[in-house]
Design a protein that fits this description.
Elements: E1 10-11, E2 17-18, E3 38-41, E4 46-49, H1 52-56, E5 62-69, E6 76-82, H2 88-92, H3 100-103, E7 105-114, H4 121-127, E8 130-139, E9 142-150, H5 159-169, H6 172-178, E10 180-181, H7 186-196, E11 203-205, E12 211-213, E13 222-228, H8 239-252, E14 256-262, H9 268-281, E15 286-288, H10 292-301, E16 307-312, E17 317-323, H11 328-341
Helix pairs in contact: 8-11
Length: 344
């Protein structure tokens, strides 16, 4: 299998974060289409050139990911990850129970942090992941790093995959020579953050330990998302009602899904309480344990629990929120109204 490098940026973290260079970076190129190698990410304050060899190399499955967190200890991070061809199917399978970190390994990271945050735990933890830490030219209160030689290594890959990874790594010095730093466009980052804050983006697991991502929204015209916490149990507990609603929803509107986010997870004790509550209510709908990105969205958008929102097939949230417990009929009536507005 030959797979061209995918030059796109995947939102990873922080509700007040944005994928850098959204307009400058193209979607994955179709076979035979020229791939852009000159990357300039204004919000991150970074520009670089992808080695031509990476574009044409057999099985060089590279997945770039980035974020900007305006208030975070790490201001910006751009990371390119290598996925062996034999792992691509599992990576694309939302039902795969193989951890993502076992399917891919970073090739390099570009890091930006404000000078005041250099000694922070987040920055130091990130630097510790790499054996090679080269500082790039500073810009107006920002410090930049080029990180290579991932400390965890690639021994878990097959010999063929290790060979490809090492071939990619051979071009890292050339990439380093192309890197340019400049003052980041924080206004553009803020605007992008506000836009991205309307979307639910996450890479996490369910209460049962199954992988679940925001791709779950893509197969439905509308998804109803309820936010709850194990510490609400047993006093605030509408799981019976939500299960009834979910079963009726499956019959009347199979193009609409329902899931619940348990906001005080991942946590062993909270998961145990939630699992007990789910078993008592006979819950069959899906659950989500929030990752950092989803947790930050919750902090910035919810006033209390339980809260129910509506999400379209792109992951974009509607402004309407249902706050507090309701009966199944109310949930169904409101969902049908929202389905009409979503363009059923």
């Amino acid at each position: 299998m030959k797979k061209k490098i995918a030059l796109f940026l995947t939102l990873l973290l922080a509700a007040c974060s944005a994928g850098c260079g959204k307009e400058e970076t193209p979607a994955p190129a179709a076979e035979g289409q020229e791939v852009q190698t000159e990357i300039r990410l204004a919000e991150c304050g970074l520009a670089y050139t992808i080695p031509e060899e990476w574009v044409t190399m057999e099985d060089a499955n590279l997945i770039p990911a980035s974020y900007v967190d305006l208030e975070g200890e790490i201001y910006a991070k751009i990371q390119y990850n290598f996925v062996p061809s034999e792992n691509m199917a599992a990576l694309d399978d939302p039902d795969s129970d193989i951890p993502v970190e076992e399917l891919m390994t970073p090739v390099f990271t570009l890091l930006a942090a404000r000078e005041d945050n250099l000694e922070s735990e987040a920055v130091q933890d990130e630097l510790a992941l790499w054996r090679s830490q080269k500082e790039l030219p500073a810009q107006e209160g920002f410090r930049y790093y080029y990180l290579t030689d991932y400390a965890s290594g690639i021994s878990h890959f097959s010999k063929d995959a290790q060979k490809i990874y090492n071939s990619l790594a051979e071009k890292l010095p050339a990439l380093e020579e192309s890197i340019e730093t400049f003052p980041p466009d924080e206004a553009a980052a803020q605007a992008a953050a506000e836009e991205n804050g309307q979307y639910l983006n996450f890479i996490s697991t369910s209460l049962e330990g199954e992988n679940v991502t925001s791709a779950i929204f893509y197969d439905y015209d509308l998804t109803v998302v309820n936010f709850w916490a194990s510490y609400c149990y047993p006093n605030i507990n509408e799981l019976d009602t939500l299960e009834t609603f979910y079963q009726e929803l499956r019959k009347k509107h199979p193009n609409v899904n329902f899931v619940q986010v348990i906001i005080d997870t991942p946590n062993e004790e909270a998961e145990s309480v939630a699992a007990k509550a789910y078993e008592e209510a006979g819950v069959t709908f899906g659950s989500i344990l929030p990752d950092q990105n989803l947790a930050n969205w919750i902090i910035n958008n919810l006033n209390g629990l339980p809260t129910t929102i509506f999400v379209d097939k792109t992951g974009k949230t509607f402004s309407l929120k249902i706050e507090g417990m309701q009966d199944a009929a109310y949930y169904m009536e409101t969902t049908e109204t929202m389905l009409e507005s979503a363009g059923e």
